Amino acid sequence: MNNSEFDKYFNTLEITQETTFTEMKNSYILLRNLYSRDNLSISPLIQSLSKKKQKLIVKEIDEAFNMLEKYYQDKKTESIKTKREKIQKSRVPTFEVIGGEALKMIRKVLGIELEEIAFLSGVTLKHLINIELERYDLLPPDVYIKTFLRKYADQLSLDTDKVVIDYFKRMEDFRSGQK
């Protein structure tokens, strides 16, 4: 389906194509609750609708949500594919072991700001800076570091498992050298 074929679903949920997935989901929940018979706060206008008409509207709202959920997933997949193509065309250096400095260099070659990684991944800028600078003592517990590394590597379209393994190897070497 092309974007214009989704217009019906955007209109059903009373949103635009610029709406984020979270905003779309919130609109879906709001409309579904509004048109559900169980809702005690429904307006007199909605109460005047027949039960059959209300069910039809709820069915249309559900269909719109399901179709737009797929639309957003496809959009995300396309974005990832575009990033990967950009990476393949770029002269991204390869590293035998990926540590913080390597992540920083790859990010810079791709022209991606650290703030953008923070925004898209949900990892705080402070943690990303500490990852790049390999300030292991300022990082949270390992379970969080693994999650942050996976999110960071994913934004750079890198092999997330390799990044985590390599980074932890460097961190283990650093920690064992301090003892």
CATH topology of the largest domain: 434 Repressor (Amino-terminal Domain)
What's the total number of strands? 0
- How many domains in all? 2
Mean pLDDT, to the nearest integer, reads 87
CATH A-level architecture of the largest domain: Orthogonal Bundle
The CATH homologous superfamily of the largest domain is called lambda repressor-like DNA-binding domains
What's the end-to-end separation, in Å? 59 Å
Instruction: Give the SSE order as H and E letters.
Output: HHHHHHHHH
Amount of helix: 55-70%
Could you list the spans in which at least 5 consecutive residues all have pLDDT below 50?
none
Give the class from helix and strand content and strand pairing.
mainly alpha
The largest pleated sheet is described as:
none
Which percent band covers the strand fraction? under 5%
Which shape, going by the Cα principal axes? Answer: elongated
Task: Report Rg.
Answer: 23 Å
CATH class of the largest domain: Mainly Alpha
